[in-house]
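Loading example: each entry is read as four labelled lines plus one structure line.
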Amino acid sequence: MRLTTKGRYAVTAMLDLALHSDQGPVSLSDISNRQGISLSYLEQLFSKLRKKLLVTSVRGPGGGYRLSRSNEDIFVAQIVDAVNESVDATGCKGRSDCQSGNTCLTHHLWCDLSDQIHDFLSQISLAQLVSRNDVRQVADRQNIESRQGGADSHMISAAIID
Amino acid sequence: MRLTTKGRYAVTAMLDLALHSDQGPVSLSDISNRQGISLSYLEQLFSKLRKKLLVTSVRGPGGGYRLSRSNEDIFVAQIVDAVNESVDATGCKGRSDCQSGNTCLTHHLWCDLSDQIHDFLSQISLAQLVSRNDVRQVADRQNIESRQGGADSHMISAAIID
DNA sequence: GTAATAACCTACTAAATTAGTCGGGTAAAT
DNA sequence: ATTTACCCGACTAATTTAGTAGGTTATTAC
C-alpha cells in the first residue's frame, strides 16, 4: 500500500484543473504556481494521467490540459491508480503468493482493507470535491495568492510582518 | 500513508502469537520459521511492540513472547501504529501545513481517508482474526509445514517433484 | 518565417525508507 | 557453566520518491 505525495499531488492537480476548467486549457505552470508542485514533476504525472485518458492536452501558446470528461465521471481512485500502480494493501498484489508461494496468514485481511480503501475513493468524484466548502475556501485563498504573484507570496508577507 | 511489510509482518507475527498462545511463550524463532520472517527483523518489530505494551517477554530457555492482554482487546490498528508511526494518509500528519504553511487543496480528503482506514482497522481484533476460516486454514497448513521442518519445506518438495 | 509558448520525452540524481544483516550483549533455566 | 532466547545498536543493499536537467515537437502570435 502506498499513498504518497505522488498520488496526493495527482489528485490535487486534477482538482485544480476541475476548479479552473471554465477558463479554457490550464497550463502546468499555472498549476505549479497555485499548488506549489514542481513543474517537471507535474509533467511526469500528467504523462501518466493522459495515458490513462483522464486528461487531454492542447499544445502551443494558450495550451494546457483539460479534463477528458465531466467532473462527475472522474473519481479519486482512478487518479491515484493512474500514478501509483494501485492502492493495494497486500504485498503480493492479490496473487496470494505472499509467503514464498503460499497465502500468508494475513492475506485476506489486507484484501479486505484494499477493498475498503478502493470503495471509499471510488465514491468521491472531482465534482463532489469542487462543491465542498473546505475545498472552495482553500481555492479562493490560492486564487488571491496567485494573482499577487506565486504560491509562496504569503511566506514573503509573513517575513515582512516578522 | 505507509502500510508496507513492516506493518504486515507485525500483524502476521501477532496473529501467530495469538494462534499459539495456549502453548506458553512463543519464541521469535518459531514465528520466524512458521511465517518466513527474518529473526533479526522480528526482534526489531517486537522491541516496538513491547514498548507499546502489546506483548510481554519471557527470557531464557523456553521463553518467548506472550500477548500482554486478551485476544479481544488487541486491534490491528494498534499493531500497525506500534511499528509504523501511523496509518495517516495526509502528508502533513494532520497539521494542515501541507502547502508551505497553509492547508493544501486536498487536505480534508486525506483526513477523511485516514479516519476511514483507522476506523476499519480499529474494529478488527486478533480474536476475530483467529476465528476466521481463511486464517485457520493457513494456520493449519503452517503447522504441518513447521513440523516437517521449516516454513519453506514445500519449496523443497516442489523441487523434488520437478 | 521566426519567436515564443507549452506540451512531450528521456535520463539522471539526492534523499529517504525498507528490509534486512551483523555482532555483540543480558537474563534465566537446565 | 552452558544453552536458550531476549535485547540493543550500528551498518548496509535495494528500492522508491521527489525532483532536476536538457532536450524535441506542435501551435500560436507577430
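The first strand of chain B starts at residue 55 and ends at 58.
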